[in-house]
Design goal:
- This protein has about 80 residues and is mainly alpha-helical.
- It is built from three helices and no strands.
C-alpha cells in the first residue's frame, strides 16, 4: 500500500512541477510520476544540504520538498536539452 501512496505522491508533485515549469503539455502521467519521485529524492538531498529534513512522509512539507526537487530536475533537463 505504501508503494501506491508514493506513486500518487510522485504524480501530484510531478504534475505541480510541470505546471510551474510549463512542461505539462510535453509530459504524460508516467513522466509526471517519475519526475515527482526523482524530484522528492533530489529535494530531500537539497534540504539535507541546508540542514533541514527531507521528505518525511505524506504531508504538505514533504510535498513542497518534492515539488522544489522536481522543479530543479526539470530546470536541469531544460538546460541540457537547449545545449
Amino acid at each position: 500500500m505504501e508503494f501506491l501512496i508514493w506513486i500518487v505522491f510522485g504524480a501530484i508533485a510531478g504534475w505541480i512541477a510541470s505546471m510551474i515549469m510549463k512542461t505539462n503539455g510535453q509530459q504524460g502521467l508516467i513522466l509526471d510520476i517519475i519526475v515527482g519521485i526523482v524530484g522528492a529524492v533530489l529535494g530531500g538531498w537539497i534540504m539535507n544540504q541546508f540542514g533541514q529534513a527531507g521528505v518525511s512522509g505524506f504531508n504538505f512539507y514533504s510535498l513542497l520538498v518534492a515539488v522544489v526537487g522536481a522543479v530543479v530536475l526539470l530546470a536541469i533537463v531544460k538546460m541540457i536539452r537547449r545545449a
